[in-house]
Amino acid sequence: MAHAGIAHRYSEKLIAFEHGGAHSGKGEEGEKDTLLWIGGLGDGLLTVQYPSTIAKSLPPNWAIAEVLLSSSYRGWGTSSLQKDAKELAECVGYFCKLRPGREVVLMGHSTGCQDIMEYVVGEGASTRPEISAAILQAGVSDREAWDFLLPEPEEKASCAAVLAEAERLLAAGKPKEMVPRENNIVQRELGAAISAYRTHSLLAKGGDDDYFSTDLDDETLRRTFGRFGEDVPLMFLLGSEDPFVHPSTDKVALLSRWAGFVKEGGGVVDEVNGGVVEGAHHNLDGDPEEVVGDLVKRVLGFLQGFEQREESRG
């Protein structure tokens, strides 16, 4: 299936694909605000369906572009959130230059949410181009998902052994070395070779990817969500049927807890449009049209509310 759009080469080897949308070709190029969408582990251009639906629904002054990173597809196994944030900074800078004075909003899906967290509050955040707002859709804990999705004792033991081997390699000063393929349940399930560093980052408590675990203490969350500040309004979206969140998790309470630390730090959270999307799975592929429509409506509501807030601030 062909998809109309524009490929923006934002760095030497990376592009962002801007969807054509319902209002493609209308208005001047520099008069558009941009929603940059960042996928999760294994995602690439057009691998998730709902950004295309968002594109068809955006008002004429907005465009959505999917960001291709070097960690896209299978590249995540040898990459890091810091590298993603560096490349995102190039992409944000590109669109700021292309459309000066216009808004750039980031929307992350799954590990794309970790990328946004790293961009806004991680090391070097103050040196990156400013964004206008952020949407975190399906921000989940890889560490916790691996724990409860491997019910058999031998599977848990295999996963623990993979982490132990990664930690051994890190201690030996070999973060870039691949964790051996033999009996590597993580590589078997995800289909990508994984470095010692990224294995630890995903599976260890306190690893660099560990932003969304339910067992993180208050002080840890103050150092992450608490650092958003009022200049980057935020919205959380989490599917009620997301299989990567433990069934016993109170999703409403979880999002409320995160939002509480954002607000405690002086930040702004859209809790009118944000929240738990009823009937939604992780990336909404295959979900009923009305469920996808609910997500799209929430995104549009956030963008509209964000615009109104900016206008009121003058």
Characterise this structure.
With about 325 residues, the chain is α/β, with parallel strands linked by helices. The chain has 2 domains: about 5-140 and about 220-314, Rossmann fold; about 145-205. It contains 10 helices and 8 strands. It has helices at about 50-55, 80-100, 110-120, 140-150, 155-170, 185-190, 195-205, 220-225, 250-265, 290-314; strands at about 5-10, 15-20, 35-40, 60-65, 105-110, 135, 235-240, 275. It has an 8-stranded mixed β-sheet with strand order 1-2-4-3-5-6-7-8, with helices on both faces. Helix 3 (about 110-120) links the parallel strand 5 (about 105-110) and strand 6. The protein is globular and about 55 Å long. The termini are far apart. The model has no long low-confidence stretch (mean pLDDT about 95). It comes from Epicoccum nigrum. This is AB hydrolase-1 domain-containing protein.
